[in-house]
Amino acid sequence: AALRELRTQYEALAARNLQAAEDWYRARCARLHERAARSQEAVRASRREAGECRRQLQARLVEMESLRGAHQSLERQLQELEERHNAEAAGLQDTIGQLQDDLRNTKNEMARHLREYQDLLNVKMALDIEIAAYRKLLEGEETLFNMGSIGLPSLNSLPSPTYSFQPRSFSSST
C-alpha cells in the first residue's frame, strides 16, 4: 500500500511534471510561432522594401542612362558649335586679313595716284609758266608788228591775232 501510494504520488508528480513540461513547451512553441510569424512578416516587409528599392534603383539607373545620353549629346553639340565657331572665326580672320591687304593696296595706290597727280600738277604749272612766257613774247611781237606795219596798209587788213589761254584739266586713268 505504501508503494502504491508512492507510485500514485510519483505518477501524480510525473503527470504534473509532464503537464508542466507540456504547458511550458506549448507556451514556448506559441512564443516561437508568434516570433516566427513576426519574423515572417518582417521578412515579407523587408522583401517588399527590397523590391521597392530594386525598382527605384532600376528607375534611377534608367534615368541616369537617359541623362548620360543627353549629356553626351549636349557635349557633342557643344563640340560641334565650338568647331563651327572656330571655323567662322578663322574665316572672319581671313576676311579681315584680306580687307587689311586690300586697304594697304588701296592706300599704296592712292599714294601712287597722288604722286602722279602731283607730277602732272607740276608739269601743268611748268606749262602754264611756259605758256605765259610765250604769251608775253607773242604780245611783244604783236606790238612790234603793229608798230612796224603802219606803212603797210595791206597787212592791216588782216585781223590782229589774239591768244587766250584756257587751262585744261588732266585726268589720269589707271
From TrEMBL:
GO terms for biological process: intermediate filament organization. Residues 64-123 form a coiled coil. Gene3D superfamilies: 1.20.5.170, Single helix bin. The keyword ATP-binding does not apply. GO terms for molecular function: structural constituent of postsynaptic intermediate filament cytoskeleton. PROSITE patterns: IF_ROD_1 (PS00226), IF_ROD_2 (PS51842). One of its GO terms (cellular component) is intermediate filament. InterPro entries: IF_conserved, IF_rod_dom, Intermediate_filament. Signal peptide: none annotated. Keywords: Coiled coil, Intermediate filament. SMART domains: Filament (SM01391). Residues 1-145 form the IF rod domain. Belongs to the intermediate filament family. This is AINX protein. It comes from Cnemophilus loriae. The lineage of its organism: Eukaryota, Metazoa, Chordata, Craniata, Vertebrata.
